[in-house]
Amino acid sequence: MKIVDATVVVTSPGRNFVTLRVTTDEGPTGLGDATLNGRELAVVSYLSDHVIPLLIGLDPHRVEDTWQSLYRGAYWRRGPVTMAAVAAVDVALWDIKGKAAGLPLYQLLGGASRDRVRTYGHANGKDIPELLDSVRARLAEGYQAVRVQSGVPGLKAVYGVHTTHEDGSPVLHQQARPLVEDWDTDAYLRHAPAVFEAVRAEFGEELPLLHDAHHRLTPVQAARLGKDLEPYRPFWLEDCTPAENQEAFRLIRRHTTTPLAVGEVFNTVHDYQTLITEQLIDYVRSAVTHFGGITPLRKLADLAALHQIKTAPHGPQDISPVGMAAAVHLDLAVHNFGIQEYAGHEPLTDEVFRHAYTFTDGHLHPGEAPGIGVELDTKAAAAHPYDAAYLPVNRLQDGTVHDW
Ligand code: CS2
Ligand code: MG
């Protein structure tokens, strides 16, 4: 079998997505997600100008060799743009391999290690009453674990909380120019325990509660928050401090037993080396789309397993249904799977990406379709052209740029 063509499909059914489509001379085609929120076109060029010409004529069954060639052959390694492009190729080749074998991808990854894939949903509110309503809504949808994000008194906008204009229309995070949001760490640290207190009081001690600090704290502030939340037994505290400095987690780990989740912005195992080998975290958060694909992510899962760390792939709406499908196949197969983030997608998105995975009672299943089980409707995709959009930027009260 040979690769005879590959195209990059950019579409914006609700938000921008970048999808690689690989065609072979024996019929099967493969899809891979290459969406990098806010920098989509950089990956389009990396694929179109530098990768696709090298794919033509290759044997699509040589998944590992192709991955190693794209990783080592570029000379300039790692980074979000490179690894999103490599991920798209990797998943497309696994998709082709599954279709050629007539098997769903999870069967090629060792078969099912569980019956279904546990997920968590997003609950948020500009204030605590609105957050409680949002938790209720997620539970009504079947979720059995929720991430709680609340507005902070005195701040106009906070990560994870959908803000609205005066007229009630949603302020979209995807803006033609970055939205500037305001931040005050002390106000946040004062407010966070009260949020958990209220949610526990309303929903009891058993509901798994997750929280995303979104890279905004210093290590000692993260240690403080971890300790303050211990009475509420969070399922995890995510991205509590920018994790380029992996050693910073030694300080946090010394002060709190709150489980820590890190890694959605990582793109190779080297970003995790100290965090995993020194047991400084409890969950690895990389998504197939941002980590170079299925091939390296299954290796990360194995390294994490040696240190009793579980996988918890990133799964917001900017991971396309193609990336989500690949993740759910891996989630079903790896032994040390922990939990899958799942925010669902807009109906418009699901019209473009018809997927075999299903969501029932808070759990996902990849389905039994060969490969990853996603069909891309290119006609529907063409109806939603790219719409330039950026993630927000955060500034402190004195105007200093901060992590968003
Ligand atoms: C967030 C993401 O879901 C999460 O854990 O950190 O929604 C993140 O803000 C976006 O993926 C950025 O594109
Ligand atoms: Mg996050």
Automatic annotation (TrEMBL):
- Enzyme Commission code(s) on record: 4.2.1.8
**GO molecular function (one):** mannonate dehydratase activity
Q: Which InterPro entries match?
A: D-mannonate_dehydratase-like, DgoD-like, Enolase-like_C_sf, Enolase-like_N, Enolase_C-like, Mandel_Rmase/mucon_lact_enz_CS, Mandelate_racemase_C, Mandelate_racemase_N_dom
Q: Which domain of life is it from?
A: Bacteria
Coiled-coil segments on the chain, per record:
none
Please provide the record's keywords in A-Z order. Answer: Lyase
Looking at its record, which EC class is this enzyme?
A: lyase
Q: Does the keyword Endoplasmic reticulum apply?
A: no
Q: Which residues form the Mandelate racemase/muconate lactonizing enzyme C-terminal domain?
A: 128-259
UniProt xrefs under PANTHER family: D-GALACTONATE DEHYDRATASE-RELATED (PTHR48080), STARVATION-SENSING PROTEIN RSPA (PTHR48080:SF6)
What's the protein called, per UniProt?
D-mannonate dehydratase ManD
Q: Which organism is it from?
A: Streptomyces argenteolus
| Gene it is expressed from | manD
